[in-house]
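Question thread 4412

I'm putting together a teaching handout and wanted feedback from people who do this every day. The idea is simple: show students a protein as raw sequence, then show them the structure tokens that encode its fold, then repeat with a second protein so they can compare. Below is the first pair exactly as I plan to print it.
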Amino acid sequence: MAEPRDVDRLLELMRGLARFEEYIDDFAVTRESVLEHGFGEARLFTAFVAEQDGDLVGMAVVYTIPWTYTLRPKVVLKELFVEESARNTGAGKALMAAVISHAGSIGAAELTWTVMDGNRAAEGFYRSLGASPDHKWNNWSLNLDAEARPAR
């Protein structure tokens, strides 16, 4: 599990994912927000990190939905990122194992996540873990910024 001393490197990894998924221009996360929301008293997320040769090379960020129709929590994997130089070294599998262990420790009934359309490498990775796409649901979003919403 990440510790407050990891915040600077964790933020770099988050930026790496933002570049990879092409939303870096909208990336608003700061060192202070990671400290407050990931390590503060009112924690909103939990972060796990993978280390290789003394450097953090990957991260997984999760949040918990306290209960669903099962009356058990659901863990949502919001971000999983391993630096390109550390891919295929087991870092991603270790991060997922930590996330799965965390979910089990809180009695979660489900672990869910989304995969960027066209990211075949990620799809293959998740399938290798025994996961499968959820064909019952598709993601929708609504931009709540007033200037981005159509007039009614």
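The second pair follows. I'd like the answer to focus on this one:
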Amino acid sequence: MRQTTLLATAFLLVSAVPVLAQAPGNTVQPADRLQIASCMRRGAATTAACIGSIAVPCVRAASGDRRDAEIVCARREEAVWRERLTLATQMLGRSLDAGGRSQFTALQFAWEGFAVQKCAFYGSAQPAARSAGLQAGCELREVAQRALEVERFAAGRGRRAPASPPQIIR
């Protein structure tokens, strides 16, 4: 029982704490949240097309150093997707039994590690002048794709009958 409680606590911590490098104080702007939500409402077939819908116009409109704009704009959109991922993770956690939450927690830890290493690798393989911007873009795509994946899975689980509560057998 104690192990289940610890795993459930770990699950909630994983879902609430972003691991990918995110600029400090990078909070979600309400207009950005609405823009992604509006894009998502257009249909399931276009959801992947929503990735970049904030960052790309943001970079185009930016004045000054394009490299800095790429990082700032990618982090700005990533914050929206990270928020969506956190909400989807919490929704999914409510629909899983203790074993499922444990498995999903392990999966999330593995995904976070993979995403961090993948983006660091791709960033380091680029010229130094482009490295940070490309790494930020990679992190944005990874978080957005994971948010979409978890949202779809959680929505599918929501249509099923909830799992029965654990029973104590004496």
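Top answer:
Good format. For the second protein you could add a caption like this: Helices lie at 2-16, 30-41, 55-61, 66-95, 98-124, 128-158. The two ends are 15 Å apart (CA to CA).
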